[in-house]
Write a structure and sequence with these properties.
heterodimer; A: about 600 residues; alpha/beta; Pyruvate-ferredoxin Oxidoreductase, domain 3; Rossmann fold; 4 domains; six-stranded mixed beta sheet; 20 helices; about 40% helix; B: about 350 residues; eight-stranded mixed beta sheet
Chain lengths: ~600, ~350
């Protein structure tokens, strides 16, 4: 069956397909191919052509198969694309299967000794003596494997017509300050390129051509973007326990902090604690938040499970902190190096009892940065743990983006009373709803005033923070917490709504699904199907959600989990509109792609 | 410096004040809701006394705890200090975070044997390993009180439960564990020995790092019967102090009033002095191996040794290792916590 999405790849110009294809490099984990793939991607980016890079890797240090996919797309679509147009089959373990999976007419670049030509006659093969060329590149056996990767960069560059000057620049950036490495790698690229020029006859439609679509843009992964957000939010206490795929968030943050957050005497304006586990990580974050720091921790699903008890404590005792959940596939260990959006329920309701949290849902690297900044203000404004749900696809893959903006608003520390204010007020009740918004006032330990102290307890408490088991005290407290949650509806990031006049169908998505959904909208437009789009950026919802669902006949909720968690949350919010809601779910561990979304919608539309 | 003057209790006179101008009442908390005669209340009284006599500003103290009878006690002292009754076994992590946010706060943590030796054993170990500055008191009674008398992991072999069950498992000795983990201040005491307890608490307050005080604190309701090794009767009969303790705070003059060779003087991190009058054992608390051996031998011989078991005043505390600015991170101004726009511009340029 020919699908709508496949059409976009058919745009040819005199048999040429320019700036619209995907390259997949299959290698062995730990072989050092990451640098080569980055060089390849950056060179194309530097030629002004929109790209995205995705690393599909195993939970392993070395030896297991890994695939890196570069999507080149002149229309700027940077979601995953299912079909591979150019395969670089460097891994003998998977080469046979990798080639078998190609569409007819695809390109396969492979080591000559694998003799993949025999496997698929309907694929264009370029067979390269990588071993021989690597021997020419170096006498050092250890370096041979690494340089083989740069040789395929040279071959691909020659075949696609990637400008050598951009490769040089990308290599210099990749190995900044290490001239010897720069020279070795450049030489390897040159060997590959020259061999290809002399020995291969170009017989495929794929080309890159210089464009001007990436001027002023950056390439960054979501974890690094979030790390920057944390630094510019003024985070002061960072507590974490390593876990894939969130580790690089804190690791990148630590690097940035050491560069940009030392005072004039070389002292740290921050503290980092690598905790003994996630139970301790959130305990430390809450201890720090209570004592007045802008604290945070970062984790993934299993860590979120371990944080459950303290998350409820933070909600009930009203302590600010920020918790990043870079989602991976669960339950249990699941697929630790694959992506998912299945922690929505667990984050929103994390802990026992009537607990619910504010959850932010960044949909791009730009929002990873922006919402990280915002999360710290919200945490202190609402005196509660704030969850930021990213995912592995967003967090660990490279994305093109507009540069990030410097925060325009000063840091908001929320309702904190100092000694002078206490003196003026003459009284202080920690949990009293003075302003009617459900948000009480707090004081920090160390405040020099006899009224300042209060006692944090996870047990029932009065407005004055004293112990209470009285039914009315408990109910008052729970009702106020609910009021506070309602106040948050007006303060969390608002949805992005694109309404098409007269559209009968609406799409709802969140997080990293946005890339695929935006592309799907393009497919639908081409198929003359009008559709509006509502991207949720936070929980709790605001009142616009109801309006959107009401104004469309059928609303497709697109998400990357099995149980339609967001669809179910929407039903809880607008139960009377439940029959309008349909579900598109992608949960294989691979990032959702536009073709899948489009096909699903079109199929359901026909029913 | 003004010396602490004991309260005479006379209603006609002004109550006595300490060196910061506060009375003993200013260091008290809410009335205890524990059982009458609970060892924990005796410890609470000594905490109040120690802080009063040291003249610590209550607003600079942070009191923390986990869950259990012991962990309720921070409500019963220092009502002018911020308090944090956390979740079961997790007080160490909260303390670590609070210390990073504000390293100027003086922290005291109260835990129990269930809270520390079972559910919180991991966090306890890591608190000690990091050397977070805190007085960490374990109110050790060998049972779970709030859940009505189950054995804890510090119950001695052969110790009898109220219902008659005998514990056959080895106890976890929190003092030898703490020493093993590198703790620089480890002491064992008894709730029924207020003089020793208050001296140890003051010394602990002068220590720069984690100070572990394992205090046998009988549970009058569930573990004070015949056959218990943590009852008042047993502890009173068996307590063997390894030395007599004298504490001279940094703000007081040291007077020499002892025979040479009979007293070991330890200078504390803040300039206070701890004077240990050797008893029959000739114990040297700066000898780590000897400390571990002595604890093991006492356990074998069913002895109840109390006193300062180990001290090392030359260790770096966690904030020392962190290279922090002097101002608490909690109160740093935005000018120091948000890098300028030029920093973001530079980073963006590198990513282009």
């Amino acid at each position: 069956m020919k699908t709508l999405a496949a059409d976009s790849a058919q745009e040819t110009h005199q048999g040429r397909i320019v700036n619209d294809f995907s390259i997949q490099v299959a290698t062995v984990n730990g072989s050092g191919s990451q640098s080569s793939n980055n060089v390849l991607m950056r060179s194309i980016f530097q030629m002004g052509i929109p790209v995205s890079g995705k690393n599909l890797f195993p939970s392993n240090i070395a030896g297991l198969p890994t695939w890196f996919t570069i999507r080149v797309n002149k229309a700027g679509w940077i979601a995953r694309k299912k079909e591979i147009d150019i395969l670089v089959a460097m891994n003998p373990q998977t080469a046979f299967d990798d080639v078998k999976a190609l569409e007819p007419g695809a390109v396969c670049i492979s080591p000559i000794e694998l003799n993949l030509k025999e496997t698929r006659a309907d694929v264009k093969h370029y067979q390269v003596p990588f071993g021989e060329l690597a021997n020419k590149a170096t006498d050092n056996i250890k370096l041979r494997k690494l340089l083989t990767n740069m040789i395929y960069v040279g071959v691909v560059a020659e075949l696609l017509n990637i400008e050598q000057a951009e490769i040089d620049k990308a290599i210099e950036k990749q190995f900044e300050g290490k001239q010897k490495a720069v020279d070795l790698n450049l030489n390897a690229v040159r060997l590959g390129r020259e061999w290809a020029r002399e020995n291969l006859k170009k017989d495929d439609p794929y080309f890159v051509e210089r464009s001007n679509q990436t001027e002023g843009k950056i390439i960054i992964d979501g974890n690094a973007a979030a790390a920057l957000g944390c630094m510019f939010a003024g985070a002061t206490v960072i507590t974490w326990y390593p876990i894939t795929p969130s580790s690089s968030l804190c690791e990148t943050l630590i690097d940035y902090l050491h560069e940009y957050r030392m005072d004039k005497d070389g002292k740290q304006t921050f503290a980092v604690v690598q905790a003994e586990d996630e139970l301790a990580a959130i305990g430390m974050a809450l201890g720090a938040g209570w004592a007045g720091a802008r604290s945070m921790t970062s984790t993934s699903g299993p860590g979120i499970s371990l944080m459950a008890e303290f998350a409820g404590f933070g909600y009930f005792t009203e302590i600010p902190t920020v918790i990043f959940d870079v989602q991976r596939v669960g339950p249990s260990t699941g697929l630790p190096t694959r992506t998912s959006q299945a922690d929505l329920f667990s984050a929103l309701f994390l802990s026992h009892g009537d607990t619910k949290h504010i959850v932010l849902l960044p949909g791009s690297v730009h929002e990873c940065y922006q919402m990280a900044v915002e999360a710290f203000d919200l945490a202190e404004k609402f005196q509660t743990p704030i969850f930021v749900l990213s995912d592995l696809d967003l967090g660990m893959n490279n994305w093109m983006s507009e540069p990030f903006n410097y925060p325009t608003k000063p840091i908001n520390r929320g309702k904190v009373l100092n000694a002078e204010q206490l003196e003026k007020l003459g009284k202080f009740e920690r949990y009293k709803d003075v302003d009617g918004d459900g948000i009480p006032y707090r004081t920090l330990p160390g405040t020099d005033h006899p009224l300042a102290a209060y006692f944090v307890r996870g047990s029932g408490h009065t407005d004055k923070a004293t112990y209470s088991e009285k039914p009315e005290d408990y109910k008052n407290l729970m009702d106020r917490l609910n009021r506070k949650f309602d106040t948050a509806r007006k303060h969390v990031p608002t949805p992005i709504v694109k309404t098409v006049k007269g559209a009968k169908i609406g799409l709802i998505a969140f997080g990293s699904s946005d890339f695929a959904v935006e592309e799907t909208l393009d497919h639908l437009k081409a198929a003359k199907v009008d559709a509006s789009y509502f991207r949720i950026r936070a929980l709790p919802f605001n009142e616009e959600l109801r309006k959107f669902v009401e104004s469309h006949d059928r609303v497709y909720v697109i998400e990357q989990n099995r149980d339609a968690q967001m669809r179910d949350l929407i039903i809880l919010e607008v139960p009377d509109l439940a029959t309008k809601l349909r579900s598109v779910r992608h949960y294989s561990g691979l990032p959702i792609d536009a073709r899948f979304v489009t096909d699903e919608i079109m199929t359901q539309e026909k029913k | 410096m003004v010396q602490a003057v004991p309260n005479t209790g006379s209603p006609s006179r002004e109550p006595a004040k300490n060196r910061v101008g506060l009375t003993l009442a200013d260091y008290k908390g809410a009335p205890s809701t524990l059982c009458d005669g609970c060892g924990h209340d005796a410890i609470t009284s000594q905490i109040i006394k120690a802080y009063y006599e040291l003249g610590v500003q209550p607003h600079m103290v942070a009191k923390l705890s986990g869950i259990g009878c012991s962990s309720k006690t921070p409500a019963y002292f220092l009502s002018r200090s911020h308090g944090f009754n956390s979740v079961h076994g997790r007080m160490p992590s909260v303390a670590t975070g609070a210390n990073m946010a504000n390293h100027k706060l003086h922290m005291i943590g109260v835990s129990g044997d269930g809270d520390t030796a079972s559910i919180g054993l991991g966090q306890f170990c890591h608190l000690v390993r990091r050397n977070v500055p805190i007085i960490y008191i374990v109110e050790n009674n060998g049972v779970y009180g709030l859940t009505k008398g189950q054995f804890s992991a510090t119950a001695d072999i052969g110790s009898k439960q109220k219902k008659g069950n005998v514990n056959e498992m080895h106890p976890i000795d929190l003092c030898s564990l703490a020493i093993e983990l590198g703790c620089g201040f480890v002491a064992r005491s008894f709730a029924g020995d207020p003089k020793q307890l208050v001296a140890l608490m003051k010394a602990a307050a002068s220590h720069n790092g984690t100070a572990v005080l394992d205090v046998i604190s009988p549970c009058v309701t569930f573990n004070n019967h015949e056959g218990s090794t943590k009852s008042y009767k047993y502890a009173k009969e068996m307590e063997t102090p390894i030395h007599e303790l004298g504490y001279v705070p940094f703000f007081e003059q040291i007077t020499v009033d002892y025979e040479p060779g009979t007293v070991q003087d330890v200078e504390m991190h803040d300039g206070s002095h701890l004077r240990l009058k050797k008893l029959e054992h000739g114990y040297d608390p700066t000898d780590k191996q000897a400390a571990v051996r002595t604890i093991a031998k006492a356990q074998h011989d069913k002895m109840f040794l109390t006193g300062l078991l180990y001290i090392d005043e030359n260790q770096k505390s966690y904030p020392d290792m962190q290279n922090l600015v002097d101002v608490p991170l909690a109160t740093l101004p935005e000018s120091l916590t948000r890098p300028p726009k030029e920093a973001l511009d530079k980073i963006m340029a590198e990513l282009m």
